[in-house]
Write a structure and sequence with these properties.
This protein is α/β, with parallel strands linked by helices. It is 53% helix and 11% strand. It contains 24 helices and 16 strands. The strands form five sheets. Strands 7-6-5-11-12 form a five-stranded parallel beta sheet, with helices on both faces. The longest helix is centred in the middle third of the chain and has 25 residues. It is flat. The two termini are 56 Å apart. The N terminus is likely disordered.
């Protein structure tokens, strides 16, 4: 019987421009220098576009290697000149030149740039996805503590972690989005005993009786500190919970579910998906992980605790506390073992505040001592640290102001409310349905909060200001969303079908501002590659803002609708919109076709 099953579609992936240039540079190095040419090409975008589009900066380094040896070269400039003469003939490079002591400047062919853009229109943005050296990764982010307030630090971790996960997923890597919540610890004994005391019929009343879990936590802490008898009960409750007592486990689950529901309100607004595997999940794996470390011979006794000494730190990493209990490091070690050996993950990224840098450095070094991680290469772990959120007064931003509590959901809803007010002031309530107005307010409001965070280098502090983040001018999500909607409006006003234009037309770059925009568009892939490699979302934000500026220059100097070049320029508008939309998607922002 004939098999009529369709053959799987071949995946199309295009190299970045940097990779294409590296290939021809590598070939020229070998032709020019023989054994001395076995170096990785140093390809970068030209800082000054008057010199060229890209620069290859290897001649000086090669000269330092061969200087004093018997070669035909007297200086690095001669090396660079010879390399350019030996460039293989392609339709890719239009001209080359040598500047200064040996910088090779390369100008790309405008025909080639247009070809790459037409391929984008034909095959889609996924064909521009960079290729990473891993297949499966974990991004460990958000990670609030059960029964405690989710604060702005968790907001930063959630926004940054989601963006990194989006970018890595775009590169065709399977990403496990892990929420390592703090759902296990001594505080639960206190909470459970207080629950039993306040609500003897706790099994029947459900979640609503507790009300505000943070307030409940505070009340139980006051009781714990003031009442020795209650304190003893609470400590015994921890033992019962951790030994698996059914009654205490049931009470623990109620407390966890209340917190989860509160966290989910934030995640729903931000449209962030996470899979929870909290501290309690890894708790059963701790004894085996500790035993493996003990068998490796890297555990030592110090001041009553079981520790691991690592280079570069005067204090050790504590694996077991003096009282025999486990701690944060114990859980992290067990989680790492599970992720490497059960989930077979090759890259694990932890997104927390920079204040935890020391812990992660010690933890990673301990894993390398245990030979769980290699000294170089994969599998690998990385800590993505971020700075503080400051208020407009320059002090640390607090979601708790005075005696009143400003919840994160209320903070996000205020951003939505302010953006909705601005849209109404522009008359959008007369033009749109209530549902469309609400959706636009969410996109702009929540997008503004995300972009205000992501556009900064994550390691620095940033100021939380509704006025700045919702400004329609400058480097804000609002400005960029309007820029995107404007491009869509230009295309709509043409009355032309983009699909028909793609089928029957093509991009041709003749005007300098057309070429500049086209060149910037085809650099998208390597920008994503840089952002992922360095784990810096602000790299993508900077690209998106500069793209909108490039488009403005093009549109100012090049008439689109009704021009002789209308087809080509409409397709260039479409290519710009495609790339902008993908940038928004990676940043976790929902763009609007009309605004």
């Amino acid at each position: 019987m004939q098999d009529n099953a369709a053959a799987p579609a071949l995946e199309i992936r295009f190299d970045t421009i940097r990779q294409e240039l590296s290939k021809i540079a590598r070939e020229s190095f070998q032709t020019t220098l023989g054994e001395w040419g076995n170096v990785e090409p140093a390809v970068a975008v030209c800082a000054n576009p008057n010199f060229g589009d890209y620069q290859i900066n290897n001649a000086m380094g090669i000269w330092s290697t061969i200087k004093g040896k018997e070669t035909e070269f007297r200086n690095p400039r001669e090396i660079a000149q010879s390399i350019t003469r030996n460039f293989p003939q392609t339709g890719f490079v239009e001209t080359t030149s040598v500047a200064g002591p040996g910088f090779i400047n390369v100008k790309l062919s405008s025909v080639y740039i247009a070809k790459r853009l037409n391929e984008l229109l034909l095959h889609g943005i996924d064909t521009w996805a960079p290729v990473l050296p891993v297949k499966r990764a974990i991004v460990d982010f958000s990670s609030p503590n059960i029964a405690k307030e989710m604060h702005v630090g968790h907001l930063r971790s959630t926004i940054i972690g989601d963006c990194l996960a989006n970018m890595i997923e775009y590169c065709k890597v399977e990403v496990l989005r892990r929420n390592h919540v703090g759902d296990w610890g001594t505080q639960f004994g206190m909470l459970i005993e207080y629950l039993f005391e306040m609500f003897p019929n706790w099994e029947d009343i459900g979640d609503q009786a507790i009300g505000d879990l943070q307030a409940f936590y505070k009340e139980s802490k006051v009781r714990f500190d003031a009442d020795e008898e209650f304190k003893a009960k609470a400590q015994q409750a921890v033992v019962k919970l951790q030994s698996g007592d059914a009654k205490y486990r049931a009470a623990w689950k109620i407390l966890c579910n209340i917190s989860r529901n509160e966290f989910q309100q934030v995640y729903d607004r931000l449209k962030v998906s996470l899979e929870e595997k909290g501290e309690s999940f890894y708790n059963p794996y701790i004894p085996d992980a500790i035993q493996i470390l003990r068998d490796k011979g890297i555990l030592e006794e110090s001041d009553g605790a079981t520790v691991i000494f690592v280079d570069g730190h005067k204090i050790p990493l504590i694996a077991i506390k003096r009282d025999g209990g486990f701690n944060y490091a114990s859980t992290d070690l067990a989680a790492l073992w599970y992720r490497l050996n059960v989930e077979k993950v090759e890259w694990i990224i932890y997104v927390t505040d920079v204040g935890q840098h020391q812990h992660f450095d010690m933890f990673f070094k301990a894993a390398k001592r245990a030979e769980w991680l290699p000294k170089e290469g994969y599998p690998r772990t990385q800590h993505v640290g971020f700075g503080l959120v400051l208020g407009t007064d320059g002090k640390r931003f607090r979601t708790r102001q005075g005696t009143g509590l400003v919840r994160l959901v209320d903070l996000l809803d205020e951003a939505k409310s302010r953006s909705k007010t601005a849209l109404i002031e522009r008359g959008r309530d007369d033009e749109w349905s209530p549902e469309d107005l609400d959706a636009a307010a969410e996109s702009v409001g929540y997008g503004a909060v995300k972009y205000a965070d992501l556009k900064n280098n994550r390691e620095t502090n940033y100021t939380f200001s509704f006025e700045q983040m919702l400004d329609v001018r400058g480097n804000t999500a609002v400005y960029l969303l309007y820029a995107y909607a404007r491009i869509r409006s230009i295309i709509r006003k043409s009355g032309k079908s983009i699909d028909e234009l793609k089928e029957n037309g093509a991009i041709v770059l003749t005007h300098p501002d057309e070429r500049a925009l086209g060149l910037f568009l085809i650099q998208f892939s390597e920008v994503v590659e840089d952002a992922v490699t360095r784990l810096l979302p602000n790299t993508l934000c900077e690209y998106l803002y500069n793209l909108s500026e490039n488009f403005t220059r093009f549109y100012t100097s090049c008439k689109v609708n009704g021009s002789p070049e209308e087809t080509s320029r409409l397709l260039l508008c479409e290519a710009t919109a495609i790339v902008m939309k993908q940038c928004f998607k990676l940043l976790g922002i929902t763009p609007l076709e009309r605004l």
